[in-house]
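2024-03-11 09:14:02 INFO worker-7 job=invfold-0412 stage=load source=structure_tokens
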């Protein structure tokens, strides 16, 4: 198992939209359609950022028929674990995260767009 270079991980979390995605995924698995709805971005934009996070091994994907579901990857190193802890503590400093959280809760309450 080859570790992901730390600089790739830092580049992955340096984008505000990718931070928002990581925040949403810390509460469980989310499909691309629901991320598009919550983040209010076009599907290609969401997919591009998800691919970046996946290359940095911060998230994993699971296909289910036509839909792809994403979740946080299990920490592969102490650095990876500390990064997730850091993201948890800084979430209060990013105002969009509270709005995203409220939107994802509404989406989940309504069943979301992707069948489980």
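2024-03-11 09:14:09 INFO worker-7 stage=emit residues=116
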């Amino acid at each position: 198992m080859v570790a992901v270079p730390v600089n790739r991980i830092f580049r992955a979390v340096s984008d505000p939209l990718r931070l928002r995605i990581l925040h949403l995924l810390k509460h469980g698995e989310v499909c691309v359609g629901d991320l598009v709805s919550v983040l209010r971005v076009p599907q290609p934009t969401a997919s591009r950022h998800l691919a970046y996070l996946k290359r940095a091994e911060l998230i994993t994907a699971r296909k289910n028929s036509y839909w792809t579901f994403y979740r946080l990857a299990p920490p592969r190193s102490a650095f990876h674990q500390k990064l997730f802890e850091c993201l948890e503590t800084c979430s209060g400093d990013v105002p969009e995260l509270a709005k995203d959280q409220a939107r994802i809760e509404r989406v989940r309450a309504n069943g979301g767009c992707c069948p489980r």
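2024-03-11 09:14:09 INFO worker-7 stage=report msg="Helices lie at 6-13, 16-25, 32-39, 43-55, 78-90, 95-109."
2024-03-11 09:14:10 INFO worker-7 job finished
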